Amino acid sequence: MTQLSVNMNVAALLRNRRGHPWPDVVGLGRLALEAGAAGLTVHPRPDARHTTAGDVRALRDLIASEFPDRELNLEGYPEARFLALVAEVRPAQVTLVPDAPDQATSDHGWAFRDQADFLREVVAELKPLGGRVALFADAEPGEMGAAAAIGADRVELYTGPYGACHGDPVGATRELQRLEVAAKAARDCGLGVNAGHDLTVPGTRALLTRVPQIDEVSIGHALFCDALRFGMAETVARYLAACASEGAARAG
């Protein structure tokens, strides 16, 4: 079954708007893990507008002490402070994204050929720390060989264009086909495949039915929107059901 990692940035963003200790990022992370999420994702940006280095450490401690079979996925642009935090925390997975410091959210993948030397050096630095290294990628099958040559373990396919097709079934089908071809190309190159951005429950179900090769989805915004209505435990259960719906397709 495709694994679900819950992105905690939305909870931290809400907390930071008022400077109070609520919503409790660690408490909500605990609820997500108790409900069956395979891990938590955090993307501490340089301006600390949502998750901070302190949140990363607290969530690392939560997983280590209470959920040792779950994973912490640490996302970020590989600048010096981020790499130092990775070396300190030793997450199970590091996802490198090409975000500018003032970027609102991740909205494109790496240009693997143009940035190959830079990324190869960073990946070589991260590999001895013991975690997987994933690279954020557009759904371009021709780029997967270049990503594999850099030395990454996985790519995370950017699903924003697919998520933007809500209410547009023709566009959604087109984007699903792009993701399917890119995922197959990544697998053919020996890469694992993650996916994330703007994935709703029905969108996740449709994606994983069409592209069962995906190892992990990382979901934050849409999941927290649903949690306002259904609560965290029920929302995680709904996403887990969507992740499980592709099991027959994967087995076949």
Written description of the protein model:
The chain has a single domain, classed as Aldolase class I (TIM Barrel, Alpha-Beta Barrel), CATH 3.20.20. The protein is globular. The chain is built from twelve helices and eight strands. It has an eight-stranded parallel barrel, surrounded by six helices. Helix 10 (221-230) packs across helix 11 (232-244). The protein starts with a strand and ends with a helix. Helix content is 49%, strand content 15%. The protein is α/β, with parallel strands linked by helices. Strand 4, helix 5 (116-126) and strand 5 (132-137) form a beta-alpha-beta unit.
Task: Name some characteristics of this structure.
8-stranded parallel beta barrel, alpha/beta, disordered C terminus, TIM Barrel, 252 residues
User: How much helix, percentage-wise, in residues?
Assistant: 40-55%
- What order do the SSEs take from the amino end to the carboxyl end, as H and E? EHHEHEHEHEHEHHEHEHHH
Q: Biggest sheet: strands side by side, in what order?
A: 1-2-3-4-5-6-7-8
Shape: globular
How far apart the termini lie comes to: 13 Å
**CATH homology superfamily:** Aldolase class I
- Counted beta strands: 8
What is the correct CATH architecture? Alpha-Beta Barrel
CATH fold descriptor: TIM Barrel
**Most strands sheet:** 8 strands, parallel, barrel
Computed structural class:
alpha/beta
**Mean pLDDT over the residues:** 94
**How many domains in all?**
1
Structural Rg? 17 Å
Q: What percentage of the residues does DSSP assign to strands (E)?
A: 15-25%
Low-confidence stretches: 247-252
Quickly count the helices. Answer: 12
User: What is the class in the CATH system?
Assistant: Alpha Beta
